[in-house]
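Before the break, one more example. Copy the sequence into your notebook; we will annotate it together after we see the structure.
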Amino acid sequence: MSTLTLTNFQITPLNAPLGAVVTGLDASQQLKPEVILQLKQTLRDRHILIFKNQYLTDEQFLNFAFHFGSLFVPPDDIPVLASQPGVTPVIIPVSNVDGGYTGTGELAFHSDHKWTPYPSSGSLLYALEVPNEGGDTFWLNLNLAYETLDEATKRRIADLQLITYNPFVRKPDTPRSKYRFDKSIPLISPVFPHPLVRTHPESGKKILYLDYATEVEVVGLDPQEGSELIEQLRSHLHQPQFYYQHKWSVGDIVYWDNQSTLHYRQAFNSQQRRVMKRVSLAGSRPF
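Here is what the structure looks like once it is written out:
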């Protein structure tokens, strides 16, 4: 089996608030340690890596992902995408055909697994079939969103804790709330407060650790005050200056840091096929 040297491939930062493109690398082959370390360093600096022209079996895809961490496995009592009781698939089909998940609609800016005790550190999404138009994915730089807040807001939110409620335990037809006002709603799943301003466990960068549309609650704040604060922060983070729009090609693998980014998916025509595979990597308790 051949190994790559550093001269075989290129990492090119995007002219965007985050992201770098990796070309000339064959993810099916064994990688040299210095290559893996360079990729990890670039992920810390640029938040997402885009690998072009990859053609992998499931085993090769997993082997490649495990250069960067071990598999994310949620607790049995805390469902996530594709969970069945006691089992979460190792490779999740993100697809609108053949029993895949997430359908064809718009998916608001979010990070994965924030309602779990140890949210995933990152995910790799591999494109096998893509629609002619639509279905683009946007990634948003949460460190940049934090850094551009005014100093008074930074001080105000410095020590706050946020509960993100599990969207996978909602009754299907209930309206989606963006803030929990009603404390009488019974908890079907445990809750785990995490810092609203998270520190990245490797880079030390500060992150505005907040999704755009999930149901949340700021611990210890009056619901009216908490909801107004969250609305203010969400209107700040949803700005084009923070995000990159990725138009998929077959053979793309995007590896994103789930701790420092949000991602959003455009809707696409349900008559078109969009077939992808996702592997998520274990994370640690946010601090």
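The mean pLDDT is 90. The two ends are 41 Å apart (CA to CA). Try to locate both features in your own notes.
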